[in-house]
User: What shape does this take?
Amino acid sequence: MTARIISGTEIAAAIRSELKLRVARLKEHGKVPYLGVILVGDDPASISYVKSKEKGAQEIGVHEVTIRLPADTPESRVIQSIDDLNNDAEVDGILVQTPLPGHIDTEKVLYHISPEKDVDGFHPVNLGKLLRGQPCFLPCTPHGIQQILVRSGYDPAGKHVVICGRSNLVGKPLAAILFQKKKGANATVTVVHTGTSHIPNFTRQADILVAAMGSPLFVKADMVKDGAVVIDVGVNRVEDKTREKGYRLVGDVDFEAVKEKAAAITPVPGGVGPMTVTMLLQNTVESAEIKAGIK
Ligand SMILES: NC(=O)c1ccc[n+]([C@@H]2O[C@H](COP(=O)([O-])OP(=O)(O)OC[C@H]3O[C@@H](n4cnc5c(N)ncnc54)[C@H](OP(=O)(O)O)[C@@H]3O)[C@@H](O)[C@H]2O)c1
Assistant: This one.
């Protein structure tokens, strides 16, 4: 069997088309969704992520402003910028681009964001609500993975989902989303990590296998059940002298081998990646809708 390749790029574009309509409706109510982004320093990856957020916001009509601060900005100044955005009634969503420079306590800074504007979904109030099954902003990458599954016809309900990785960014919130007694969830979830003995024993049982480890090509074909759906979250640079940049991007899944065994698989790039920014924009639009009283 050769797997169906699930295009996150196409699913994300479809969601952005829906968001454009929601933004147009908000504008009829006199409201333009507003996303405030704080970027500290000049980390190239962070600059590129912020650019993709600016581009996505522009595409769907969200007003986006990036506050650029130098790398040596004191923590108190970063918190002041968050307070300014918290106190600005026009602002619907706030995002602080991570990683932050070493002298800044990231947790302290992120927890300063008002939970009502925490469109990244990482504030403990939102994570607590997520765990309790209450409405909240869902963290963007895990929410994007859920959308990939549901929108490509692989509803997780009743399935055994095995997640490789337990980070606060991906693995833990994804587990919390997928085991809820809710539409597009209701799965049985197993999470494996570096403390798990013999990971293949678990991955081979997965109807849906999610690899989110940051370990290049970790998931081999013999770790995957015939006909499984495989979601590759990993983004890893590996040396490739044939490329101009000297490297190429690979996921956590040995794509070429696993695609001969799986029923469906996401590629890297073009799988989970494009979903993350789109779900951030969705949270921003949703925040504006709540404020405008049309949600
Ligand atoms: N496409 C996107 O939008 C997007 C978004 C976020 C992340 N990513 C990518 O997804 C990957 C994971 O990101 P992350 O932030 O979740 O990474 P992370 O914070 O480094 O967490 C990695 C997790 O995987 C586990 N792990 C790592 N190597 C393992 C191994 N050999 N065996 C078993 N478990 C292992 C770790 O276990 P322990 O807890 O035991 O250490 C940890 O729980 C990265 O490649 C990242 O670039 C992509």
About this structure: The first strand starts at residue 4 and ends at 5. Residues 141, 164-167, 169-171, 193-195, 199, 212-215, 218, 233-236, 272-273, 276 surround NAP (CB under 6 Å). Residues 8-28 form the longest helix (21 residues).
